[in-house]
Design brief:
single chain, mainly alpha, 2 domains, 17 helices, globular
């Protein structure tokens, strides 16, 4: 079920009415949450509810056994069972086709063609997200940072909570479980803030879908001869498309959560205002980057064993983070690219810190904007790798940028692309720049009612004028 559909609107109005009516009975309200989560997830394909139930049952009973076990060896064995079960299901449904096809291709290259029929494994929507949510619970119980849920019912409320179920944020039990197992109070401020986040998220989704037309026009071309300016426009367009699409989903999820009295973690904090790769990953997909830090990077050794091992740990973390996004070598390459950026920045940071500080505030501000723009272009280069259909296409596009860049003779189609990109991106940049200047992501909801009303009216007119085709899937559903 899609947030940006009439089906969801009807579903949520009915669900929310019952939710408010049952606010004095926590068990009934939580039963509604489980039922709502099952309907929301099962609307796509009810058969994959079995995987969701398998995951939550596995981690609930394993975590309970870990908590009751006295021997360290038994605790570790149980944890390994949980990790193997979760990653086994995730690996089969998400990566079976990828590795099978890669293996067949490798044999063919080596002159050992193997004739066999590959089964087509469907990727269950949201499996990467709810698997990480559930698995982190077991790991935290193992580490002694969290007591297990009192009942399977309580744990099911946590795992099936539908706003973040399909595309995050990746909530942890320490953040969410206690909110869902205790009485929730909803006040008008929460409700208004939730409605604002929902509206802002829907406008971001509209912007993403509009930019998607630009992106698809270029990236769906067969190549190899790409128009360099169109590639530039498409790269910038995709950078804002994926940001608006993904952060739009999490804004809606957080808004729905607030309307229900539940606070979901922040997942995006103006990521394109970052001036270096470390800051970027503190602002982009925060719930995933912190998950990878706490459950992969630090267990590998973090930065505790010297520079070389630190670089290794960074590279492994980012490589697997890239692979988490999808079963394709382009995602692996994208993860390696960001791993290289993080390693390079860590290596040169002592020299950057040694540079004299700019004392003039205006010059310092201009220099900060220049750093943002420079690093944003590095991020866009990574987005090109992320978006292409193959490494061959990535190479063809990069060649067009490096060796065939022309500044004259823009084709009419190229002008249309540039106009659309400029208009939608300018609106977003003005708003995000204001948020950055005020250091307040909710600043639009706090300004005077007249300019706020004008902004909302402009948003609405844009949606109507561009005939927004509601019901398009969010990009991260495929991950």
């Amino acid at each position: 079920m899609l947030f940006n559909s009439f089906t969801f609107l009807i579903f949520f109005l009915l669900f929310y009415s019952l939710y408010l009516v049952s606010r004095h009975n926590l068990k009934i309200q939580n039963a509604l949450l489980i039922l709502g989560g099952c309907i929301f997830y099962g609307w796509w394909d009810w058969r994959f509810l079995s995987l969701l139930f398998f995951t939550l049952c596995l981690d609930y009973f394993v975590a309970k056994a870990i908590y009751q076990a006295e021997e360290a060896g038994r605790k570790k064995l149980l944890l390994q069972l949980s990790i193997a079960g979760n990653l086994g299901v995730l690996g089969f449904f998400k990566y079976f086709n990828f590795f099978a096809e890669s293996f067949a291709h490798l044999l063919s290259v080596l002159g050992l063609p193997l004739e066999f029929h590959l089964i087509s494994v469907i990727l269950p929507i949201g499996i990467s997200f709810y698997t990480f949510v559930s698995m982190s619970y077991t790991i935290d119980v193992y580490r002694g940072r969290l007591a297990p849920a009192e009942s399977l019912f309580d744990f099911a409320v946590f795992v099936t909570f539908f706003p973040p179920l399909l595309a995050g944020p990746i909530s942890r039990a320490s953040q969410l479980l206690h909110q869902l197992t205790s009485v929730r109070k909803i006040n008008l401020d929460q409700f208004y803030t939730g409605c604002y986040l929902i509206f802002w998220g829907l406008f971001k989704k509209f912007t993403a879908d509009s930019l998607g037309q630009v992106v698809n026009t270029v990236f769906n071309q067969p190549g190899p001869n790409y128009d360099s300016l169109q590639v530039v426009a498409a790269c910038y367009a995709f950078a804002f498309q994926i940001y608006c699409d993904f952060s739009g989903y999490t804004d809606i999820a957080r808004g729905l959560g607030k309307c229900m009295g539940v606070e979901l973690p922040l997942n995006f904090n103006l990521p394109y205002c970052a001036t270096n790769p470390v800051e970027f990953w503190r602002r982009w997909h925060i719930s995933l980057s912190t998950w990878l830090r706490d459950y992969l990077y630090i267990p590998l050794g973090g930065n505790r064993k010297g520079d070389l091992l630190t670089y290794r740990n960074i590279f492994i973390t980012m490589l697997l983070g890239g692979l988490w996004h999808g079963a394709s070598w382009t995602f692996v390459l994208w993860g390696c690219y960001h791993g290289f950026l993080l390693i390079a920045y860590r290596a040169i940071k002592p020299y950057l810190d040694a540079l004299p500080r700019l004392r003039n505030q205006s010059i310092s501000g201009i220099w900060n904007v220049c750093k943002m723009f420079f690093f944003f272009n590095l991020v866009c280069l990574g987005w090109l790798i992320f978006r292409v259909k193959s490494i061959t296409q990535a190479w063809q596009m990069l060649k067009s940028l490096a060796f065939k860049f022309e500044v004259a003779g823009i084709a009419p189609s190229g002008k249309d692309l540039l106009i659309n990109v400029t208009m939608f991106v300018s609106i977003l940049l003005i708003i995000q720049g204001f948020q950055y200047y005020k250091n307040d992501r909710m600043v639009l909801s706090r300004i005077h009612w007249l300019p706020r009303g004008i902004i909302y009216f402009v948003f609405f007119v844009l949606m109507i004028s561009y005939r927004w085709n509601i019901g398009k899937e969010f990009i991260y559903f495929q991950f």
